[in-house]
Amino acid sequence: MKRAIRYLRFSQLGQSNGSIERQEMYTDQYLQYNNIQLVDTFIDRGKSAKTFDRPDFIKLQAFIAKHYKSVDYLLVDQLDRFSRDAGEAMNMVKQFQRKYSIQIISVTEGIIFDYDTPGSFFRAGLQLLLAEEDNINRSIKVRGGIYTARAKEGRFLTREKPFGYVKVGEGKQRHLEVNELEAKVVRQIYDMFLRDVPLYKIKEAAYEMGFDRKGNMAVERVLANPVYAGLVRVEPFKDLPGGLFPAVHEPIIDKATWQMVQSKMKIADKVKVVVDDEIPLRGVVKCHCGVPLTGAPSRGKSGKYFYYYKCKHSKHNNISAVKAHEQFLNACNLMSIPEKKIKEIRNGCYTSLEEEMKTNRKKAIEKNRELQEVKQRLHAVEEKWFKDEINKDTYDRWYSTYSDHILNLTAAIERLSINPNKAFELLDNNLDMLSDVRYIYDKATTLQKREFVNKVFDGNLYYQEGIYRTPTMLDLLSHNASKMEEKGYLIYNKKRDNLSTIPKSGR
């Protein structure tokens, strides 16, 4: 009696039961009709036929290598179960026959592959080529569908949801919605990066706020992901272009902020910046050659340590941190704003805040309208559940979807409905501090000091020949520039239009 093993495979988990049952039934019928004894069965579940690197196919090869003398046939339902790569498959079946004397039988196609029989060889090769062509056509259709969904419809199709969003809806209606609690963390990450906060500090703050993505590059991936700007990345398809396309989901940060971050990531200093309270200007003040100054302590004869700012070029700057800090504090003294100017700023800020609050109230009304609609849908689902019109699985799925949506809308409404008095109170309590800029800087944390320097000088503060120099300075604080130069604190050589307003943080 002839003996056989069989190999069954399906590529999509959704078709598992029907596909395997059908393959078993046809191969069982062939075995019974031809009086062949089944020795063993190997099944690869949810595995593609593009490669032979499949768990049970590897076991099958090991079985044949060990027991080939007691096996005559390898049965498959169709040759495309065996492989969809015609060339690779032909070599494999030739090896089975020539090395182990085992023939491949495709039961539903009626093919007994025999390399020494021309007709059999041609039929098997043709079937494998047809299977490969079918696979190519299917792949083209899938890639075309993905391109359309992303580039034309703006849908986000990646299986894992990005941090900051939740997935709602089913099928083609499935889309991303902002998770307000996580979105707050995303905005903070972008804001801190634009404020030149070192990445290790950004990561510490993000994880403290609830960031839950793992990996050393998790924060960098958030900074590089266009999904947060309401964009979707699309691969080119045939003659159609790839790139970034507008998405249907709501962005967490604006496109201008995202572009600024991408530009900054390309030119970011590769040297890791470590924050040290003794030398807060390290990395934010540059040598006249353009290289950011480093900083380190040096031990004196008495055994006491003294801090210095240094350029990597030995013949360039080597400045006492005490001197550098005192010069900068004296320059801050002269940046202080007169009371009359502060009053003008206060009036302008009041007007801007009122306009922003007015816009937020309109958005809150729209979100509230959407919230009521979602609550009605949830109520309708509950009614159907009570009337036994839907099963529990359907009810649980839609209840979870609508509940998450309600939580996010509620959080958004709360954010947009913040009492404007708090903003005005914050303005009133802190604006007068501009009359003493030295005090502001002196009492700031190290990170705040670094942010202050970058904002006031737009990242262009240098040190040369015993004095600070800059081509760009916040216009609001430059009114005493001539005195700063006269006293040897700071030279403001205006090279382009200066900054007339306080730069935005990027949020």
UniProtKB/TrEMBL annotation:
Membrane-spanning segments: none
InterPro entries documented for this protein: DNA_bind_recomb_sf (IPR038109), DNA_bind_recombinase_dom (IPR011109), Resolv_N (IPR006119), Resolvase-like_N_sf (IPR036162), SSR_resolvase (IPR050639), Zn_ribbon_recom_dom (IPR025827)
SUPFAM superfamilies noted in UniProt: Resolvase-like
Coiled-coil zones: 350-384
Domain Recombinase: 162-271
Keywords: Coiled coil
Superkingdom field: Bacteria
Keyword Protease: no
Record-level Gene Ontology MF annotations: DNA binding; DNA strand exchange activity
Every Resolvase/invertase-type recombinase catalytic domain range: 3-153
Entry protein name: Site-specific recombinase
Species assigned in the record: Flavobacterium beibuense
